[in-house]
Amino acid sequence: MAKLIDGKAVSASVRAQVAQEVQELKAKGLHPGLAVVIVGDDPASRTYVNNKKKACAETGIYSEEYALPAATTQEELLSLVRSLNQKPEIHGILVQSPLPEGLDEEAVIEEINPQKDVDAFHPQNVGRIMIGNFHFLPCTPAGVIELIRSQGIEIAGKRCVVIGRSNIVGKPMAMLLLHNHGTVTICHSKTRDLAEICREADILVAAVGRPKFVTENMVKPGAVVIDVGMDRDENGKLCGDVDFVHVEPKAGYITPVPGGVGPMTIAMLLRNTVTAAKLQAGWKD
Ligand code: NAP
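^ inputs. structure came back:
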């Protein structure tokens, strides 16, 4: 039986640290602030934005929400980002994806002041992560590293396999494992002998977006299995990329869905907002 990595508990402890730091910063006259921009009426995006606002309130972070109609033009959105770049009480800007069709997400990200880019999606921050000289780490991969560390698991020297190569999860995930001295393989839809490669992994991270994709025959006994997926099963129920019921007895450690990686993403966003506030104030960590 695998040890369950409890993302709710780990994220609660990160949030408590953030809340404590926010209090200390406020006492010194610095109140971290986050602006969340949502365009259109995608229900999942609405839920994410509500959760982020709630998490800010709980940790004492100041937040502003900008809910724009789906018919918003590219120029209107860019102009909002520019005005948030100038706002001194806003230290982090998050534009909730996906944007409605017709809006250029990359151009919007590039408009965000890199020091306010708490998602770490701006090309300047992506480059910083690549060379290992970064201010922020992208929230989901950073959350995964935090979960692994919470168990005292050493990454150095381990065989790490990441399934998925998206810009927001797979690629930065691989880079963070590499920074932690893992020996990393990235797999994707064109990978040959996927199951065989996965079976070599001491640490297996699934970021595929396909329900129950990682089956028991893809997992080495005792492996650390991290499930980033947020999928729906045949009954419409939230599930991960890992076939939990069959993989769990074989793995050494495993994250559940829900309650694994998901809660970490918001916790790391809060931490990045605090980092951004200190960065803009010229304060060192
Ligand atoms: P994505 O952009 O769709 O990327 C999926 C990746 O999986 C792609 O690189 C794709 O390969 C690869 N893939 C698809 N089918 C495959 C197959 N049969 N064999 C091997 N690789 C395959 O998705 P994403 O944005 O990275 O998200 C991945 C999952 O994580 C989703 O379930 C998403 O909801 C979840 N997620 C969770 C959080 C969280 O907070 N927990 C945050 C972000 C995302 P190609 O590149 O070759 O197409």
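The pocket of NAP is lined by residues 140, 163-166, 168-170, 187-191, 194, 207-210, 228-231, 261-262, 265 (CB under 6 Å). The mean pLDDT is 97.
thumbs up if we can close this ticket
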